[in-house]
Design a protein that fits this description.
InterPro entries: Pigment-catalase-like
Radius of gyration: 18 Å
Protein name: Desiccation-related protein PCC13-62-like
Oligomer: single chain
Number of helices: 7
Distance between the termini: 42 Å
């Protein structure tokens, strides 16, 4: 008898979308622009086109105001952005394209790590005006992302149960990963469910009230995939 190792496929709603390299970069740009606008408008009150007119197209973000930028918001955005890199990296075709994605991913990974380290240094501090700590806040945002994405535990806070810690040896979780210390990966539909805050990839809202741009979101809307 021959024994074969079998790998179970994720359910259809959690599988990566079939798309070209161009379409995947196009999808990724939605979030890179969002992140740049978030940092610029919350820190200096101006956006990309205020600094470089005509650089990006589309409507101007609404409701953005200067604020004392909290760490939780960019970490929330960075976490699922990094997961999309992990998900698409193996399927990117072309050496130049792989090189470009690697450079973007390395930079974003460094920013994400620095933000998580800053949060970890304040893990036991209370978040005003609430009565819970930074550590609990990161756990709550991770739980929300997992609930919206509907594909299991892929986002984690700074404190995790031992069975979810790196190699089942630690509860501290500055750099999130699975039990084998590998990065989690999310599909485009998972990312859209989180970004829209609706739990439905065909129902815009949240960070993108008018929906994401590009061929991948268009196909998902046309097929009415949740």
């Amino acid at each position: 008898m021959i024994k074969v190792n079998t790998v179970s496929l994720p359910p259809p709603e959690c599988r990566p979308e079939v798309a070209s390299t161009k379409e995947k970069f196009e999808f990724l740009l939605n979030f890179l622009i969002l992140k740049i606008e978030l940092f610029l408008r919350s820190s200096i009150g101006r956006g990309i086109n205020d600094i470089s007119p005509g650089l990006v197209q589309g409507p101007v973000p609404i409701g953005a105001t200067v604020a004392n930028l909290d760490n939780a918001t960019p970490v929330f955005a960075s976490s699922f952005l990094n997961q999309y890199y992990a998900g698409i990296m193996p399927s990117i075709v072309g050496n130049d394209e792989r090189h470009l994605l690697s450079k973007i991913a390395l930079y974003e990974g460094g920013v994400f790590g620095a933000l998580r380290a800053e949060l970890n240094a304040r893990v036991n501090l209370t978040v005003p005006p609430f009565n819970f700590t930074v550590g609990i806040l990161t756990n709550l945002t991770a739980q929300l992302a997992n609930q919206l994405a509907r594909c299991g535990v892929k986002d984690e806070g700074l404190i995790v149960p031992l069975q979810l810690g790196a190699e089942n040896r630690t509860r501290s979780n500055v750099v999130p990963g699975d039990v084998n210390s590998l990065a989690y990966a999310r599909s485009a539909r998972e990312i859209m469910r989180i970004a829209y805050t609706t739990g439905n990839a065909s129902r815009p809202g949240g960070l993108f009230p008018q929906g994401l741009k590009g061929e991948i979101p268009r196909r998902i809307r046309t097929l009415n995939l949740s």
